[in-house]
Write a structure and sequence with these properties.
Structural class: alpha/beta
GO molecular function: methyltransferase activity
Largest sheet: 8 strands, mixed
Distance between the termini: 121 Å
Number of strands: 14
InterPro entries: FkbM_mtfrase (IPR006342), SAM-dependent_MTase (IPR052514), SAM-dependent_MTases_sf (IPR029063)
GO biological process, one term: methylation
CATH superfamily of one domain: Vaccinia Virus protein VP39
Protein name: FkbM family methyltransferase
Radius of gyration: 34 Å
Order of helices and strands: HHEEEHHEHEHEEEEHEHHEHHEEHE
CATH architecture of one domain: 3-Layer(aba) Sandwich
Number of helices: 12
CATH class of one domain: Alpha Beta
Strand order of the largest sheet: 6-5-4-10-11-14-12-13
Pfam family, one: Methyltransf_21
Strand content: 15-25%
Length: 315
């Protein structure tokens, strides 16, 4: 019977033979490495998730401020304050950052750097802000909104975008004469506020009104006017004849509805008056501008539906 000598045990150890303890250590080390791999994967996923959340916050389109007010971002990057109760324009601004793309395209083509742009019926200021960017530092924007609640949002929006140097704001109704008018509006469709009547259940307030010829007597010329005042458009133009007369190269973008115009003046006469002043009459449609048309043709084309007039003179 042979015996293993101490020398042979040392030789076996030096030659790499492993015992039970070494195997257990290696197994424990492997298990630890697996756990560390799981932890590492979990941490990476959580970090990625946090980074995604941070990016969402950076890119947040709308931030609710409380009291039915939100700050949202237009597709141009400009900030605008809105009323979250409004189901008309504000729902589109909060979701898409855009309103009336097809009309915006036409107005953008008309407004150039250095021009004077009038936004009559500015609402929350979508076209006021875009117009301020389009005219640049050398241009001017005159913005008019009768609803005092909306006007507060409009004023803040102009300031937060740094446009106080080129935008002048008026909290009143543009009319044919100086007056105090009854103004009706609803919270869920605040852009439909009007001095020409309002739906049942509307809020009613008194607002000051004045003609553009009085308000802008110091303005040498206007280049582009967007007019959307829920049926009171004929009153606006009656009170702007002097301004229009000294603006030979003038473009008008005007909301028009035959039934809304009729209580003030016959629709055909209203349209023909623009033609008699030298304006070419076209319509803004979803697919773009129509060709020039006669006043009668315009009425036939719209057939009593809401339309947007595009009137150009000179230039």
């Amino acid at each position: 019977m042979s015996e293993t000598s101490p020398m042979s045990e040392r030789t076996a150890s030096r030659s790499g033979t492993t015992g039970p303890d070494t195997g257990r250590l290696e197994a424990a080390l492997g298990a630890m490495q697996d756990k560390l791999a799981v932890i590492e994967t979990t941490l990476i996923r959580r970090i990625d998730g946090l980074e995604a959340q941070l990016q969402q916050l950076r890119d947040a389109h709308t931030i609710y401020l409380g009291g039915h007010e939100a700050l949202t971002r237009l597709h141009t990057g400009h900030r605008i304050y809105v009323d979250t109760r409004d189901a008309g324009i504000c729902s589109h601004l909060m979701l898409d950052g855009r309103w009336e793309r097809w009309i915006e395209t036409i107005i953008a083509g008309a407004v150039k750097p250095g021009m004077t742009f009038l936004d009559v019926g500015a609402n929350f200021g979508y076209y006021t802000l875009l117009g301020a960017a389009w005219v640049g530092a050398r241009g001017r924007v005159y913005s008019f909104e009768a609803n005092p609640g909306i006007f507060r949002h409009l004023r803040r929006s102009v300031s937060i975008n740094g446009f106080d140097d080129r935008v002048e704001l008026f909290n009143l109704a543009v009319h044919s004469e100086e007056a105090t008018l009854r103004f009706g509006y609803t919270d869920d469709f605040s852009g439909g506020g009007s001095t020409m009547g309002s739906p049942q259940g509307a809020h009613h307030i008194e607002v000051k009104a004045a003609p553009l010829d009085t308000l802008l007597a110091q303005v040498a010329t206007a280049h582009v006017m967007k007019v959307d005042v829920e049926g009171a458009e004929p009153h606006v133009f009656r009170g702007a004849r002097a301004l229009m007369d000294r603006s030979p190269n003038l473009t008008l973008i005007v909301e028009f509805h035959e039934d809304s115009t009729r209580p003030i003046m016959p629709p055909l006469r209203y349209l023909q008056d623009f033609v008699d002043q030298g304006f070419a009459l076209r319509l803004i449609e979803q697919k773009g501008l129509t060709g020039a048309m006669r006043a009668e043709e315009c009425l036939q084309t719209l057939a009593g539906t809401l339309g947007y007039l595009y009137l150009t003179r000179g230039g």
